[in-house]
Amino acid sequence: TIRLSGRVNRIKPSPTLAVDARAKALKAQGKDVIGLGAGEPDFDTPEHIKEAAIRAIRDGFTKYTAVDGTPGLKQAVIGKFKRDNGLDYTPEEILISVGGKQSFFNLAQALLDNGDEVIIPAPYWVSYPDMVLLADATPVIISAGIDQAFKIRPEQLERRITRNTRLLVINSPSNPTGAVYTRAELAALGEVLRKHPQVLIATDDMYEHILWANEPFSNILNACPDLKDRTIVLNGVSKVYAMTGWRIGYAAGPKPLIAAMKKIQSQSTSNPTSIAQVAAEAALNGDQGCIAPMVRAFKERHDRLVSRLNKIRGVRCLPSEGTFYAFPDFSRAIAATDGVNNDSDMAEYLLNKAEVALVPGSAFGAEGHLRLSYATSMQILDKALDRIEKLLGTT
Ligand code: PLP
């Protein structure tokens, strides 16, 4: 047998990708499985974005670019931060990467050593803890349950900060809960962070535009501009422009940190695909009118899904303010079902008996929940809910 590294043995494959692969495999066998596992919009990439990429191929823009991204895309990102977030950056403070995933990976590799701690509020995006482990550091999980609307409180943060804390990760709107921090809530977290200058902050704004909260989007820098010298903003085009396959994400932050992340990227992937960079530039500079119809559709599905989920026996779902995920609590349904002892069992049960694929909440650090992606048509969603309802019953 081949002896593998301790590093790779510390982590697990992405559970969301695994559920999606399993649903696709069952479908290929002829099973009528409805996959609600994947985290990608069901819309097509808008036409003007595709056209820009096709033009780039025809023009021969098919060679290496600068490791940290083309000047054109960097300018588009700088323009986006100014326009949408009121934030000012220079090109040396921007790094373009192969998806938001690589942005966080580069950050972890550039910042963390053995013994360093990273505070991750749970429920969390599945990749944060594993990417921290890959960097030899220690994830420190703060649980924010359904009773606190999946958002951490300042006292919880204060209690878990130590001398070894290097980074806090904030993801709002959140995958998997759709929870959104208000500007006031971020300001309260900022009060705590001000007392601990050794802690950097990563704000993952990937779902910034997929939002229907009462107030406009804010990240921690909007709430606390004085934290800019230790905050890194992560974002990307994957979700907002239905561009998951193009693999373009970007980061903005202090120059020395961005330079270190660029060094990691220069010795791993080099530049993101030249053509995809042109497409991302067209997305960020082009007409932003393509976003609203997608968000409207997500909101409609959200409303229907939440109301229907709350009628299923043993299921409780909070309305959320963004993303395309619902994160219902199935703990009462789990307790009431023979042979089902936890959320993984429940996911298995729903897959086998209702042919609906969901992701167990424990993958996101929240047992008893399941994550449903509603990036699928209303008709398919209704069909999935009919099946779950039939299996578990209604209240
Ligand atoms: N951040 C969050 C919170 C996400 O949910 C995702 C995708 O699921 C990403 C980052 C990474 O996106 P990508 O690497 O596809 O750009």
UniProtKB/TrEMBL annotation:
Gene3D superfamilies: Aspartate Aminotransferase, domain 1, Type I PLP-dependent aspartate aminotransferase-like (Major domain)
InterPro entries (UniProt xref): Aminotransferase_I/II_large (IPR004839), AspAT/PAT-like (IPR050596), NHTrfase_class1_PyrdxlP-BS (IPR004838), PyrdxlP-dep_Trfase (IPR015424), PyrdxlP-dep_Trfase_major (IPR015421), PyrdxlP-dep_Trfase_small (IPR015422)
Domain Aminotransferase class I/classII large: 31-388
Keywords: Aminotransferase, Pyridoxal phosphate, Transferase
Protein origin, superkingdom: Bacteria
Cofactor: pyridoxal 5'-phosphate
GO biological process, one term: amino acid metabolic process
Pfam family name, one: Aminotran_1_2
GO MF term (any one): pyridoxal phosphate binding
EC number: 2.6.1.-
Family, similarity comment: Belongs to the class-I pyridoxal-phosphate-dependent aminotransferase family.
UniProt protein name: Aminotransferase
Origin species: Sulfuricaulis limicola
Lineage of the organism: Bacteria, Pseudomonadati, Pseudomonadota, Gammaproteobacteria, Acidiferrobacterales
